[in-house]
Structure formats: structure tokens, C-alpha cells
Fold:
Amino acid sequence: MGDAIEKVSIIISKGSLEGVYPGLIMANGARAEGIEANLFFTFFGLDAIHAKRLSHIKVAAVGNPGMHMASLLGVLPGMSAIATHMMSRKMETFDIPGIPEFMEMIADTGCGMYACKASVELFGFTKDDFISQVQDIITVGEFYEKAAGGEIIFT
Amino acid sequence: MSVETIAGVTLEVNDEGFLVDPSRWNEDVAVELARREGIDPLSERHWEVIRFMRSEYEAKGAGPSVRMLGKTSGVPIKELYELFPKGPAKLAAKIAGIPKPRGCI
Structure:
């Protein structure tokens, strides 16, 4: 088992539901396998740790071919909310938690959670804007230090 | 697949070390399996989780995910990871002699 993965650092850079979940599932799944894991939130991915925004993360209804729906319909008011609601209900039946619960759960597994300093400054956020599970705001250099010796996954 | 003698019982285990036949399990086997995973001795809290895994398996045919374990076993997720640092659902299932839970969450 010399080739077994022992550590992963996962970057979440998108703020849509479909942009956030894969990274969360991979981080949580890593911990469930006993693999050390870190999450690094950058750019719009910061919404996933923003205390006021993480409950409102939505599926992209426009420009998303995976929706199998004309983009013209996606622009209708409330379409993104409807799609998100349907997706969330379906996820719950498959034991996938909502983002706020998932973030809390992942932190409880011992996964590290960090915000990207450049993005935090760009958006004018402070540490107080984020959920308490976020350990620190770090530079890209510090991220590489934390990621040393493991795999890096960009989402 | 290989055959091993664990706590005096001859048992078939798969490549990952999970028992092939959960009905051959007993508490002495659990103690030995835990010891091999670096958990020695098993505390009362460990036993709570192990017994819960067994009863879930017997009732549903599969062990619970970590999320379900945290919600229903009475042991919160943080503590589950303290008890079973190499993955609570996976490790507790192995020690409980049931198949590895296959959920993604």
C-alpha cells in the first residue's frame, strides 16, 4: 500500500452548488478513509464559508448545459431557486447534507479550512464574515506549505 | 481473500481485512481486530459504536455512513474521529466484523 494517498488539499474556487459540492464530498470522503485533508476556499468559492451566504448557494440555471434546459428559461426569475430546491430535496434522500450542515460536519472530521488571502482582500471580507470553522486566512505560499507532501485538487 | 486465526477463531478476511462472514464475529475477535488497527484497549464509547454498527447491519444489511453514525449512534462526529482516527465508519465496521460501508458521504 505504498502508493496509498495519505493527504489531500482541495481548492474550491466556484460559488455555485455544483461548484462547491464536489470539493466538499471529496474532503469529507478523504477523512472518512483516514486521509488527512485541507480545504482552501478562493474567489467565488468563498461564498461556501461566508456566514450569510452559505445557506443561499444555488445551482447555475443559465450557461449550464447539465441542466438540460434552454438557457432562455434559466433567466426567468426564481428558476435558479427552483432548481436548487429540487436538487437539495433529492440530495437529502441520498444522505447528502445541506451546505451549512456539511461544513460543520467536515470541520468535525478534523479537516482544515482556510480562506485565500488575495480573494478575501479583493472582496473586502474579514475573518468575521466567515463561519467559525474557518481556521485562518492564508496566502498561496502558506497554502503550498500546508499542502506539502500530499495531493492538490483544484475544483 | 485469506484465512486467519483471530482470537482463536478461524476466519476468512478480504484484502482490506474485513470479515467475509459477519456471523462468525464475537467480542474477542473485535478486541483483536481493534488491536491490529492500533486501538487498544477498546473503551466503553468504542463499544457503543461497535454495537451500534452491528445492530444497524443486522437491521438493514449495511453499516451506516459517518453522517448517519453521528446522527443516530449518540456519539457526535468529532468524538467518532477521536475514537477511530483512521475513519470511523470504515474502522468501526471492520472491528464490528461487518462489510465496509460503501456510501460517499
User: Anything to note?
Assistant: The helical segments of chain B are 27-36, 44-60, 66-72, 77-83, 88-95. Chain B touches chain A at residues 65-68, 70, 76-78, 81, 85-91, 103-105 (CB under 8 Å).
